[in-house]
Amino acid sequence: MIKAILIFNNHGKPRLSKFYQPYSEDTQQQIIRETFHLVSKRDENVCNFLEGGLLIGGSDNKLIYRHYATLYFVFCVDSSESELGILDLIQVFVETLDKCFENVCELDLIFHVDKVHNILAEMVMGGMVLETNMNEIVTQIDAQNKLEKSEQITYTGLFCIGQDFSRAGLAGAPARAVSAVKNMNLPEIPRNINIGDISIKVPNLPSFK
Amino acid sequence: MALRMVKGSIDRMFDKNLQDLVRGIRNHKEDEAKYISQCIDEIKQELKQDSIAVKANAVCKLTYLQMLGYDISWAAFNIIEVMSASKFTFKRIGYLAASQCFHEGTDVIMLTTNQIRKDLSSPSQHDTGVALTGLSCFVTPDLARDLANDIMTLMSHTKPYIRKKAVLIMYKVFLKHPESLRPAFPRLKEKLEDPDPGVQSAAVNVICELARRNPKNYLSLAPLFFKLMTSSTNNWVLIKIIKLFGALTPLEPRLGKKLIEPLTNLIHSTSAMSLLYECVNTVIAVLISLSSGMPNHSASIQLCVQKLRILIEDSDQNLKYLGLLAMSKILKTHPKSVQSHKDLILQCLDDKDESIRLRALDLLYGMVSKKSLMEIVKKLMAHVDKAEGTTYRDELLTKIIDICSQSNYQHITNFEWYISILVELTRLEGTRHGHLIAAQMLDVAIRVKAIRKFAVAQMSVLLDSAPLVASSTQRNGICEVLYAAAWICGEFSEHLQEPQRTLEAMLRPKVTTLPGHIQAVYVQNVLKLYASILQQEEQAGQPEAAQQATQLLLERLPQFVQSADLEVQERASCILQLVKHVQKLQAKAVPVAEELSALFAGELNPVAPKAQKKVPVPEGLDLDAWINEPPSDSDSEDERPKAMFHEEEQRHAKPRQAEVDEEELARRREARRQEQASNPFYIKSSPSPHKRYQDAPGVEHIPVVQIDLSVPLKVPGLPLSEQYVKLEEERRHRQKLEKDKRKKRKKEKRGRRRHGSLPTESDEDIAPAQQVDIVTEEMPENALPSDEDDKDPNDPYRALDIDLDKPLADSEKLPVLKHRNAQAPKPPEKEDVPVVEKKSKKPKKKEKTHKERSRKREEGRKKSTQKKKKHKKEKEERGKDKKSKKRRPEREEATEPVQNGAPQEEPLPPMSSYCPLAENAYVKMTYDVQGSLQEDSQVTVSVILENHSRSLLKNMELSVLDSLNTKMARPEGSSVHDGVPVPFQLPPGVSNEAQFVFSVQSIVMAQKLKGTLSFIAKDEDGATQEKLDFKLHFSCSSYLLTTPCCSDAFAKLLESGDLSVSSIKVDGISMSFQNLLARICFHHHFSVVERVDSCASMYSRSIQGHHVCLLVKKGESSVSVDGKCSDATMLGNLLEEVKGTLAQC
Questions:
Q1: Could you read off the pLDDT of B438-493 as tens digits, one per residue?
Q2: How close, in Å, is residue A112 to chain B by CA atoms?
Q3: Nearest to B994 by CA among B1067, B901, B1104, B917
């Protein structure tokens, strides 16, 4: 079981939080803070596993994370999940985000956290891995977006305004954030954790900048 | 702001969408909280509007705020409103918000049941999907119970996308509503072989999660999983299955043996590291489970260790970490194969990654031996010096202590070395583990008697060293070691070289800066030290020196008397008075040393940590009894019953105690003696430790080697453990030479050294320098062995510990949704019709749930007081169950409760398949005919015999006239005319059930058989021979077996075309359709395949394999039944029987 999925940036600002066990908002924030504290002080080239211990649930749990440029993707899982498998899943997640947002960057996650949730929902459901094939996920997301668009036609007038705003929102984002995103470099991801023949390719994701 | 003014009133609803909110928050860094509270106010306004689009927008923003830590539960109702929007766009926003903030405590959650049900059966797969996803996050026990059946239906949805989501969510449903596990399990199992890999993977996922918690219930699935493992190419699935096998193997060693080969093949063939790693892990689990029985798997172990070595040597830190993790599992059972990779693991200690270092440390714990201990600890000490960051250093420190002290200091050959290591560790600054070091010092000094002299010398140096005391001012844990040092110096003061100097050190003014509990120990031990100084000086005839010591105490003790710590103050005052008294006596030249030392005579022995708990309660002691009656503060009326109760309890308690004590104690004593005999550390030969100390307090008594004189006992300054390493090496070398010499002399004498107190692999030759004369921890006589079950009773997974192989009981079927008449018109596509399916029902011969059962049992007990045949008990009760059921007046549900679409399981009227057979003044017979599952063409007739006379019925015998077609099975050797004895007697008022087997040739027609029951009725007046004739009716239905059938197979069967058709129609039926179906299921052994509104398809199979399909349709007041069967005659007869049943409805 996956207990929680967290995305936060290098400063510990949450960009997505998904808990598969109920916690109060305060506890959730505390967990995010503690996780950030644990993860952020680790060097770049150390292993991606951390014994979570007291964090969520018991000593059975582990934190498995990856660090992409300004973002940390952290999965808290119990012992029934394969550590390397989850690492690949994070990679699939990021690649899917990259595909859906076309060159994803932190700002996409900041302004479209609902979309990120929708993508995640096609991968992990109730803490269990639902789909690992990126193409499947993207197909579903596309179909849903299409459905959404067709519904919007009836609301055209209203939604045009909304969309204009969202575009303005992206463009008008503070310059500081943009510059922070500019020089994202992806670390080379070792190929040997590639899970055989499911279509998880682990390229170096140059597009994620 | 200007923009907002421009916008019209409709636009105002959109004045802030999610993106604007995010941007706003980013622009208000300084007063974020204020800005957000402003936004929340706006959101509250938006939620009050009628437009669902505005509401959805507001909820979307709330979801974002929830992530930032704001409580949005106040908007739960609005979230539900948005969930129920017809547009997918809004629905999705609503479900997302719900999944983020709903939980079991959300009170409005119960309002969602119908909405979710509607979405689940929506024609759009996206609506269904989004509802399933949302539900998976906030499912509650109520939702799980109400929706379980709907979700189960979705498990057979045509779209794999829905199927896989429905399968996955079942796990959550099981967790919240464990009762649904058994009815849903067959279908879940079916999904393991789903054509869609995604669905298959989901099913594996769910079953693996279930099996991980309660593996034993899933052992029967092992062959299926084995098949999947060898056929699947999906690595995700393989990993899950292999992990599952890891959980199953400890329960079934045979499985492990079978697994080894395919797993090794996978290890060799796979290129995916994740799969390789899981295979290795499971092989390890298999090997652990086999380790007791089969030692012959060295090849597999070698393979694992070899592969793990590759992982550890990899440059990828993740693989390194996992390799070490798996290695530690092997270590537990096969330490030798890991020990050969010591180099690699020591290398990992130098890794820059802390997680890896910690893993390596874990491994070291199990790898040390007598030979390698010093080397490894030396390496660790080097790391301690290098380590930055106190956490890791503290970890190292505890590991060093753990490694050294493991299993009673098994690996330590030289305790001088160990003490010096401990002393070196005290130089660590800022460690939290001072108390740990102190505990070790105390433990070693107390339990290893030979080391005391050395320990005391070291401790006195510690006491003398200024930095330790100084460090105490900086709230530092290390000063704890002074506690140990002071106690050791005091307790074993006879070993001190310069007691005066130590005394002086312990009385320094700086000491008062130490924590209170340490000062207290100082004060107490000063007195011990003083006593031993007095004794020495008096014996040496130097009263001046003694008086000097007294003077010193009198000068310095007052500083402790002023201490703020009560303990210190009290002890210091007492001792001060004592010393003053001594001084007076000394002035009169009276020898006081003897008396003073007598205060501390005797030895303190270590007591096992659990000793207190294990003291058996002595005979006659009632721990719960009042020592003094509690004063009664109530009036006398209250008091009296209390006293009575109390007396009674005592009376009960006493004999019970005695019972246990007599033989039980003797047995325990013997067991303990044996355990001691096999304990290498227990001192067997000496009568008792206490006695020995009294007899010979001198050192010479202890059979210990004289410590080599080359060892400097008094080390100037702090010792360096390395010196001891060298010395130890020399010693070992000498020892070896000596041993060789001795060998040449052909074991003249074995010397005084005990050899290899513990035979460890490969280092038996190394004898410890100090005899490891470890005093065993004391345990009370007759200590009780305690193995408390540590299972947590609150484990949520416990509820899922359900036997899945038992047949389904009636009461277990999932609640079925009853449709209202005002149901929306049927959508055209059939697959999207809200199909309500009923679980196959086997109403007969079924186990009731335990609860119901036990309740019935109670009833049964009340009705009959006598029960004799214990082995028949079960059967008898079942008979009773049915009887009691039958006796109940039949209730008919005339009115159906119409509740607003809430799922409603209509209670079925009680039904019994037992028909009356015959009755006379003595006995009443009822019977039931069931097809046999095991044998073709056999039926079992269960006859309940109820004695309603006042006589005892015995020698009962059942004889039946066989027909050509139907024959009774008789015991071997008996002729066709013999009766079959009934295997029990019937006391008055008792009923019991007997079963008889008949073989049938043709089953297409109903049969009748004549028979007679003969018995002897015995009462006070005498015995009479009686008989009772009866006619057994074998209906066609009784040849049918309730067989569940899935709709696909059913459709195929109908299409196949080789079935004959027939139909009937019955008018004037008032019973509800559900009841009707239940009746057909019950009396004619059918199962419902599919039910749509007032139309249902049913299936059954005969014992000879005929398929029977029915289509039951209900009109206004009529019911038509169309049947298809592979045999026309049979179908005709069956339909007639069904007609008969329906006519009664």
A1: 898 988 888 888 888 899 988 888 888 766 666 555 556 777 888 888 999 888 88
A2: 7
A3: B917
Alpha carbon of residue B480 to chain centroid: 39
- Strand blocks (E) in chain A: 2-9, 14-19, 49-51, 62-68, 71-77, 124-125, 128-129
User: Which residues are within 8 A (CB) of B422 and not within 5 positions of it... i.e. 6 or more apart?
Assistant: B437, B440, B441, B444, B481
Higher pLDDT, B932 or B214: B214
Q: Say how far apart CA B1138 and CA B751 lie, in whole Å.
A: 97
Res. B866: pLDDT tops 90: no
Of B130, B169, B236, the CB nearest to A126: B169
Res. A111: pLDDT tops 80: yes
Distance from CA of B246 to the nearest CA of A (A): 11
The three-point CA angle B890-B895-B897 to 5° equals 115
Instruction: Give me the half-sphere count of Cα atoms (radius 13 Å) on the Cβ side of residue B1126.
Output: 11
3-state secondary structure of B51: coil
Q: Which long-range contacts (CB under 8 A, 24 or more apart) does B261-270 make?
A: B262/B226, B262/B229, B262/B230, B264/B300, B264/B303, B266/B238, B266/B242, B267/B303, B267/B304, B267/B307, B270/A196, B270/B235
Q: Report yes or no: B921 and B977 within 8 Å, Cβ to Cβ.
A: no
Let me know the angle formed at the C-alpha of B416 by B410 and B418, rounded to the nearest 5 degrees: 55
The DSSP H or E segment spanning A146 is: helix A134-152
- DSSP lists the bridge partners of residue B924 as B919, B946
How far lies A178's CA from each of A101, B182, B614, B843, in Å?
16, 55, 68, 69
Does the distance separating the beta carbons of A143 and B126 come in below 8 Å?
yes
Tokens 């600002």 belong to: A13
Q: What are the backbone dihedrals phi and psi of residue B410, each rounded to the nearest 5 degrees, phi first?
A: -60, -35
Rounded to whole angstroms, the Cα distance separating B851 from B854 reads 5
Amino acid at B320: K
Buried b (16+ CB within 10 A) or exposed e, B740-760: eeeeeeeeeeeeebeeebbee
**CA A132 to CA A96: how far, in whole Å?**
10
Q: In what order do the strands lie in the sheet with B938-947?
A: B915-919, B923-931, B938-947, B991-1000, B966-968
Whether residues B53 and A158 touch (CB distance < 8 A) is answered with yes
- ipTM confidence score: 0.81
Which residue has 């197979």 as its token pair? B1049
What value does the mean pLDDT of chain A take?
76
For B247-276, what is each residue's pLDDT tens digit?
A: 888 888 788 888 888 888 888 888 888 888
DSSP reduced 3-state for A129: strand
Distance CA B97, CA B112 (A): 13
For chain A, say whether B17 makes contact (Cβ under 8 Å).
yes
- How far apart (Å, rounded) are the C-alpha atoms in residues B716 and B458? 10
Distance, in Å, from the CA atom of B466 to the CA atom of B482, rounded to the nearest integer, reads 11
Closest CA to A105 of A3, A2, A207: A207
Query: Taking CB atoms and an 8 Å cutoff, what residues of chain B touch A195?
Result: 235-236, 272, 274-275
- Determine which helix (DSSP H) or strand (DSSP E) holds B918, and give its type and residue range: strand B915-919
Taking the CB of residue B84, how many other CB atoms lie within 10 A of it? 18
Q: What share of chain A is helix, strand, coil (3-state, %, to 5)?
A: 50, 15, 35
CA dist B334 and B327 (Å) reads 10
For A14, the closest of B67, B104, B317 (CB atoms) is B67
CB A8 within 8 A of CB A72: yes
> From the CB of residue B700, how many other CB atoms can be counted at a distance below 10 Å?
8
- Secondary structure class of A19 (helix, strand, coil): strand
